[in-house]
Amino acid sequence: MKSIYKEIYDDLVRDIEAGKYGPNTLLPSENELMNYYDTSRQTVRKALNHLSQDGYIQKIRGKGSVVLDRSSLDFPLSWLASFKELSNKMNINAKTKVHSLKIMEPTPTLAEHLQTGTDKEIWEVVRVRNIDGQNVILDKDYIKRDLVPNLTIKTCEQSIFEFIEKELNLEISYAKKVFSAQDATKEDKELLDLKHYNVVIVVQNYIYLKDTTLLQYTESRHRPDKFKFIDFARRELNK
Amino acid sequence: MKSIYKEIYDDLVRDIEAGKYGPNTLLPSENELMNYYDTSRQTVRKALNHLSQDGYIQKIRGKGSVVLDRSSLDFPLSWLASFKELSNKMNINAKTKVHSLKIMEPTPTLAEHLQTGTDKEIWEVVRVRNIDGQNVILDKDYIKRDLVPNLTIKTCEQSIFEFIEKELNLEISYAKKVFSAQDATKEDKELLDLKHYNVVIVVQNYIYLKDTTLLQYTESRHRPDKFKFIDFARRELNK
DNA sequence: GAGTGGTCTAGACCACGGA
DNA sequence: CCGTGGTCTAGACCACTCC
User: Fold this and answer.
1) pTM: predicted TM-score of the whole model, two decimal places
2) Edge-to-edge, what's the strand order for the sheet holding B214-222?
3) Which among A28, A78, B172, B178 could bridge A231 via Cys, Cβ 3.0 to 4.6 Å?
4) Distance from residue B205 (CA) to nucleotide D14 (C1'), in Å?
5) How far apart are the CA of A237 and the nearest CA of chain B, in angstroms?
6) Residue range B9-67, pLDDT digits in tens
């Protein structure tokens, strides 16, 4: 059973993306939505606040909720999303090749990234993402084995994300991402079609479950010209 | 007069950062906070939800609000912050040199970025950020002149941000950032100490006021090895 | 003045975790 | 079982925008 505010949120997202409410027009007022969904104002406001948080609308006191123009925003890929989800949304001709999949004991560096001991087994998954015939992203995933006992090449070719959430019923709650640029390593040069570039854009991703345990550390190494990341940020506290 | 939830939020942020509530310990329960501040539960929850949003805590049903470890998070520089705010927070030896400041009519490209006409005057501010004796960031700001009539070199050396908010009383509400990498231009090579790097990390920043008008377009060009950006993201809707 | 969103109250019931 | 957080209600008063 979906909660009411989530239903309202989903409805409005759908309507906005379908163009039912165009950019710079007003959404129905909180009162109208309240009556329409036969619910309390707080519930409506919760839905609207999430729309605001996610960059769909701007609430203006005395006026209403203005729909923002997200056409140039393309995809809000700031948030936790898997490569598969992304490539679907963007209609990209993408393929994934699993380069290696193995169980290992972490090096001291990896143990620190994963907040675990060097004697605890972890999975190492190395995947190459191919877009339009070019190998442009190298993904290295490190996953705690005690949380994910089994992993197959087939799963890694699809979406590890989906597998973890749907098959294992682990709830991913939040993540910390660190963006930087690094000199390309020998491995980068071997596995990617780097052309003349001597640096790669690195996205380190620490993925946490809802009980705050760290599940996975991922390093995504992008060829510079194929890297793009969009972020929507609010300065004020949400109302 | 500060609102109650903001007061609670600020208090808790202060206490968490001061170490009064250490990582992996529990905050007082919603009931306790409710009594302490003599307010309703909803008001307390609003404050806690913002803490959750900002990566300070994880709320766990049946248990409480767990303080997350932000020591490695350093600074949540994902969010709207000026260079001055940042360098203050990070104790960095940073200097700003204004390379040029002028009024111009936008090129077609710039007009599109700023969502304005090619006949409307805009400011162009070019600044070089020097960290530890090296020129590592080139900031190019384009600001609508009708919103900001006057701008001085002195202001640009300090913080344009502060000037806009405090002197002009314009309320900045949200921003869209686009991260990418580009081949270094002739200008990059002239103004920055680029060493052997042939690409720069570019952060395009579109800054909006609370009435949804676009105020400013900024392009921040970073030497790759000095670029770092940290993002905290939640997968679930906030509760 | 009428309508909008922003803050807040005082209740209620539910789902979950831990002892 | 009790205490936790998650959802929701039905009111209230305020600040703001627009006419």
Assistant:
1) 0.89
2) A228-234, B172-183, B199-209, B214-222, B134-144, B122-131, B94-104
3) A78
4) 35
5) 7
6) 999 999 999 999 999 999 999 999 999 999 999 999 999 999 999 999 999 999 999 99
